Amino acid sequence: MQIKAQLSHAIEAAFSTLGLDGAALVQTSSRPEHGDYQANGVMAAAKRAKRNPREVAAEVIEVLDLTGIASKVDIAGPGFLNITLAADFLAGVDAGHVTASPTPQRVVVDYSAPNLAKEMHVGHLRSTIIGDCIVRVLEAQGHTVLRQNHVGDWGTQFGMLLTYLSDNAANSDSLAYLEDFYRAAKKRFDEDEDFQQRARRAVVELQAGDDHALDMWQHFITVSMSHCQDIYNRLDVTLDESHIQGESAYNDALPGVVEQLQDKGLLTESEGAQCVFLDEFKTKKGEILPVIVQKSDGGYLYATTDLAAVAYRSNELNADRVLYFTDARQALHFKQIFAVARAAGFTDSATSLEHMPFGAMLGDDGKPFKTRAGTVVKLADLLDEAELRATRLVRSKNPDLDEDIATELGHVIGIGAVKYADLSKNRTSDYVFNWEQMISFDGNTSPYLQYAYTRIASIFARGQIDPQTLPAHASAVEEPERRLAVMIAGFNDTLEAVASEGMPHLLCGYLYELATRFTSFYEACPILSSSADVRERRLVLARQTADTLRRGLDLLGIGVVEQM
């Protein structure tokens, strides 16, 4: 259930009854002793009506119908409404259950997008895991999600790569290490003039649709994508080959993009290139920044491909929303693409185009995260290191653990730690990568949450209790119980914010607060040693906490373990 939506609807109904114009603006209370939620829309409504806010708040309470939801509504400050949820309402919460959206949409999510000419590196991590978290949340809410992996699988560099592949066709392992392959091909291109000429001819043949060139290109893409899929599988990311919609997919549509822009009167020739100039994109000096869609030699650019993608996603996939998860440095690019797409009629106002930018992963020096040698860190190497560190941590806690179990725990904890360290940061911010912080049982980390889950599991194991035999619901009585129950009930409010804003850190913050409240509850409220009725309700709360932790971590793409 989405509590904020229910409270907002009831308060706005009260506004309507009183002839007031306003929105409820319900937020989680920052001071739990004053209530669970706070609505601050009364003051704005009173101001429009030119009335005293506290008097209006009193009238709202008189007609407000929160039967079965709230046990108390108080006026605070200049006109806030403090709302305390009813015990029976809290008891009816289905912990960990995701409420279906009342208005399901078709949502296209563009994420990951590696360059298939090279191995995935740390620069691909944020797009991949942030996008995948949002995909998981949207699907859980009942939206139809269309994954689009806009991989770099086209362009002039492929002439060089295909020529080198052709020269090394006899070596079956030539593509085993993509980074080495790319480096060797580039060195050959820079030093061998004959190779350069053959590479340029290969580009022409590929773009012209030559069968042999296309066969070679497809082999290269297949092998390259297998490298990516290995990473996706390790990260438990829900992308696979069926979601690839690379740059090459739009190649045939590019002339039509330019033609439609021409028909709309949007093209201007500038230094031989075809450009779109929109007044809304001016520099501080008043110069308009162009969107170049065709070079002077007739070639196309990323902007042309992105416009073709907007048209495809809007008109062929019938998207209600299109979400793009890319580096923040592309913010201006997407603002221009969205504006040109609407001006040209590639999409209309019914389709929401949303760029979801993210900051950079930094090293201790405040610069983009790299190896000690100054090279870009391969994502596979980063994950290897995470699993190794997590396995060592597990063995230090439990030296007698079976080798296979320790390795499996190292995988789940290590991968979870890397993902959570990223997802728990505000998407738009840069963050410093720190091994010690991310693989720690203290603070807002994945191991802390996973440990909270295992601690709950250990309660049931010690008591030899099957959690499935307990009642589905129980009423919280004591304050630590009630505070925990309130937190459990707020799960879907958090997911709604994550889905609408594309901000996984909101879910991470919620789960951390949930685990923290469980710790307070556990310390204040004995469970197994309590009387039968008290014991049962506290066990139900413990199980509900575990269910919510497990479901929340799953939506982040992180697993749980039964022991640590």
Using the CA coordinates, give the radius of gyration: 28 Å
How far apart are the termini? 32 Å
Spatial ordering of strands, largest sheet: 1-2-4-3
- Biggest β-sheet: count, sense, barrel? 4 strands, antiparallel
Q: Say which CATH homologous superfamily of one domain is assigned.
A: Arginyl tRNA synthetase N-terminal domain
Explain this structure:
By secondary structure, the protein is an alpha/beta fold. Among the domains are: 3-85, Arginyl tRNA synthetase N-terminal domain (Gyrase A, domain 2, 2-Layer Sandwich), CATH 3.30.1360.70; 157-239, no CATH class. It has 20 helices and 13 strands. The chain has helices at residues 3-17, 42-49, 53-63, 87-91, 125-140, 157-167, 178-191, 193-207, 211-235, 254-263, 302-316, 331-344, 379-397, 403-423, 435-438, 446-463, 479-489, 491-501, 504-524, 532-555; strands at residues 26-28, 37-39, 70-76, 80-85, 106-110, 144-148, 267-270, 273-282, 288-294, 321-324, 352-355, 361-362, 431-432. A 4-stranded antiparallel beta sheet has the order 1-2-4-3. Strands 6-5-10-11 form a 4-stranded parallel beta sheet, with helices on both faces. Helix 6 crosses helix 8 (193-207) and helix 18 (491-501) runs antiparallel to helix 19. The relative contact order is 0.11.
